[in-house]
Automatic annotation (TrEMBL):
GO terms for cellular component: cytoplasmic side of plasma membrane; cytosol. GO terms for molecular function: ATP binding; ATP hydrolysis activity; metallopeptidase activity. This is MinD/ParA family protein. The chain crosses the membrane at residues 124-151, 157-177, 189-208, 228-259, 320-340, 371-396. The lineage of its organism: Bacteria, Bacillati, Actinomycetota, Actinomycetes, Propionibacteriales.
Length: 746
């Protein structure tokens, strides 16, 4: 297929790693890790079974042969990255042609020569040289302002207009130097620049450099590449200023000033100038314009978040959303103005061309070659914007036509399907139905009342709802709807009881805190009986975090086991939180006790609790080799593994999963929920650590640092930060997802 694998995008703003692949037609495609592995192992072509085995080994999760074939057929073949074996002449994949993209492109300097020149110039990016150049630019600008001569230079141009040709020529040369700066910065960072060319951007002629390979660099290397063109413009300005000081030429002064105005223009982030790419690389999102549609769809009230938005990290998501809200109104207004002013632009363009033709005729009669050249260049400069406007409007028209066709085709398919259903209904004999019988069953909310939009519970939507006297109801936000969905999942009914073991291989990671918070979340939002058992043999403190100390413990329950025949009797042995109604059975912290409970004791205890509680959370000790903890794992339906947001915490968690897989608990590992407990402000797990646990377990959730959980005393759930409560609901929903899948316990 002639594919070139550019590697992972460094410093990406996406939650998951992404990879770049260059097709034979130089189109670059961004892929997820799984799709990238499929492409790597399917090139050259090999049987699907071999591809599935190779991808499974590299990805860390099993990918079936059917899954490989599905990904190839639905995702990779349309992108032109994999060719079906039966296709003798595969269709050439269509290139992406965004509305705001270069058109009418032509190559000025091939990739091989660009790399050669960039290698020779790369020492210019040595930091001391860059610093000296920037200082020299400030000194040069001060010298120009103090020295004057600007108006004399302007008068010189008005006196001999044909000398403006030299300014045009020098600005064109500086534009080429600008592109060499991008290529050289790319090469200096260790990537390979491509060709340098020229095309039309919107309505203007523009040069470009292919620096796609810079995505394999880190964020600093990519930003250096973006700024490389402006840096070479700085060097050009310094050369012009030195030449002006040496010769006194006003043309050189005007060119130096005009070039600096162009440098400021390049920093505009609205369209694909250097400023746009700088913002894109700072955010870690390769193509900001491709996110415009998803962001706008996600901002619609009551609509779910588009996957192209949810895949962004929170900071990148806020950054991209702000950029879209700024750019869309500006570009929409510019497009409306362009369409509205099109007749006048065409008319003025025709008049300008006619005037330059007249100038050319007069210059021809006088044999004034510079004036003739200036007239020809002026005609060309007038034609290029008109051609650019035509291309932009043509692309806009074709894009709208394609969208309309797709919409009509979908409607036609829906109409045909409905007609087929009606015709089949006519062909089939009418079913024998009994006449409807009216009864009290008709008196339901769904039948008697129109569906009601739930009122918002937070944010500006709630303010509007309450401020309008509950007349205007904008509905819940996408975040609130997601919270409702998570709450619905965690309320999944339980057949019998469920046992959830909260464990950690390392002490001091907040295991007891997570047990308390998770149990409280279940108790508050489910409404059925939830109990947390302090199964830490080394005098755990779970009960002290819920209510004042209780004088009865697990040891008392086991001693009186035969006498506990009802929930009311068992309730005498447990503490209960006033707010969440979570019950806790305390461990024995009597210093006179010299022997811990064993696995048989916990087995008898759990069997008793099964009779009276729907959900049992077991807060274990840290010794995975302890007989009691192994017995609790044997009793578990689900585990919650708590780790720290650091390398040592991740290693301890991974070792715990390794041990479980080696000792017959692989099913618990595959559906485990990993909780990364951030114990300080801003703590977050390393990306590779998160990916490791995501591949091995069902869900990975980070609980942000919260001062209310750090006190080690009675914990009030209402004092937690909203983000903390949301993360706990996320954990509870992931745990509850297995309640139905497992079915009733035999």
């Amino acid at each position: 297929m002639g594919l070139q694998f550019l590697g992972a995008v460094q410093g990406s703003g996406l939650r998951d790693p992404s990879f770049l692949v260059r097709r034979i037609d130089d189109q670059v495609v961004q892929l997820s890790e799984l799709l990238h592995l499929v492409v790597v192992h399917a090139d050259p072509p090999r049987p699907s079974a071999e591809v599935a085995d190779a991808v499974s080994a590299a990805y860390g999760r099993t990918l079936t042969v059917e899954g490989v074939e599905h990904l190839i057929t639905t995702r990779l073949e349309p992108l032109g990255l994999v060719v079906a074996e039966e296709d003798e002449e595969p269709l050439r994949p269509t290139r992406a042609r965004p509305l705001l993209a270069l058109s009418l492109k032509a190559t000025l300097l091939p990739a091989r020569r660009t790399r050669m020149v960039a290698s020779l110039l790369s020492p210019l990016f040595w930091p001391p040289v860059v610093l000296a150049a920037l200082v020299a630019l400030v000194v040069a600008d001060v010298a120009l302002v103090v020295g004057g001569g600007f108006w004399e230079a302007v008068g010189e141009v008005f006196a001999t207009p044909t000398t403006a040709l030299l300014i045009y020529a020098m600005l064109i040369v500086s534009a080429v130097i600008h592109e060499l700066g991008h290529a050289t910065a790319c090469r200096y960072g260790g990537a390979d620049p491509g060709e340098i060319g020229v095309g039309v951007y919107i309505v203007f002629p523009a040069f470009y450099t292919d620096v796609t390979d810079s995505y394999r660099l880190g964020r600093g290397g990519r930003v250096r590449t973006d700024l490389g063109g402006l840096y070479f413009n700085v060097l050009t300005v310094l050369g012009l200023v030195l030449a002006h000081l040496a010769t006194g030429s006003g043309l050189l002064l005007l060119t130096a000033l005009a070039l600096q105005v162009q440098m400021v223009q390049q920093l505009i982030p609205v369209v694909r100038f250097d400023g746009y790419f700088i913002l894109s690389d700072l955010a870690g999102v390769p193509d900001l314009f491709s996110r415009v549609g998803p962001v706008l769809r996600s901002l619609r009230p009551g609509q779910p978040v588009d996957p192209r938005v949810s895949e962004l990290r929170p900071r990148a998501r806020r950054f991209v959303t702000a950029w879209v809200l700024l750019v869309v109104p500006l570009l929409s207004a510019a497009l409306v103005w362009l369409v509205w002013s099109l007749p006048q632009l065409v008319q003025h363009g025709r008049e300008g061309i006619a005037l330059q033709q007249l100038v050319f005729d007069v210059a021809w009669q006088r044999r004034d070659w510079p004036a003739m050249a200036l007239a020809v260049i002026s005609i060309g400069l007038l034609l290029v914007p008109l051609a650019g406007v035509t291309v932009v409007l043509w692309r806009l028209a074709t894009t709208l036509t394609t969208l309309v066709r797709r919409g009509l085709a979908a409607r036609v398919r829906s109409w045909e399907d409905s007609m087929d259903d009606r015709m089949s209904a006519f062909d089939a004999p009418p079913p024998a139905t009994e006449p409807a019988v009216l009864s009290a069953a008709d008196f339901t909310d769904a039948i008697m009342y129109a569906p009601r939009v739930p009122p918002p519970r937070q944010g500006w939507r709630r303010a509007v709802y309450e401020g309008s006297g509950r007349v205007v109801n904008p509905g819940p936000s996408a975040t609130e709807l997601r919270r409702h969905e998570l709450e619905r999942r965690l309320r999944t009914p339980i057949h019998g009881s469920r046992r959830v073991v909260v464990l950690s291989r390392k002490g001091g990671v907040g295991k007891t805190t997570i047990s308390l918070a998770l149990g409280s979340t279940f108790a508050m939002l489910r409404g059925d009986r939830v109990i947390a058992v302090d199964a830490n043999p080394d005098a755990g403190n779970l009960a002290h975090r819920v209510a004042p100390p209780h004088d009865r413990t697990i040891t008392d329950v086991l001693r009186d086991l035969d006498e506990i025949t009802s929930y009311a009797t068992l309730r005498r042995y447990t503490s209960q939180a006033l707010e969440s109604r979570l019950e806790v059975l305390a461990s024995d912290d009597d210093p006179r006790i010299g022997m811990a409970l064993d696995r048989d004791d916990y087995h008898r205890l759990v069997e008793l609790l099964d009779q009276f509680y729907n959900l049992i959370l077991l807060d274990t000790g840290t010794g995975i080799l302890d007989s009691a903890n192994q017995g609790l794992l044997s009793e578990a339906d689900q585990i919650v593994l708590v780790v720290r947001a650091g390398l040592d915490g991740g290693r301890a968690g991974a070792l715990t999963l390794d041990w479980m897989e080696q000792h017959g608990f692989g099913d618990l590992v595959s559906r485990a929920v990993v909780v990364v407990n951030a114990q300080r402000h801003g703590a977050a797990p390393p990306e590779k650590m998160r990916r490791h646990f995501e591949k091995r377990c069902q869900r990975v959730v980070t609980v942000p640092w919260d001062g209310a959980l750090e006190q080690g005393a009675l914990t009030d759930m209402s004092s937690l930060h909203r983000k903390t409560r949301d993360s706990l609901v996320d954990i509870a929903a992931a745990v509850a997802d297995n309640f139905v899948r497992m079915g009733a316990r035999s």
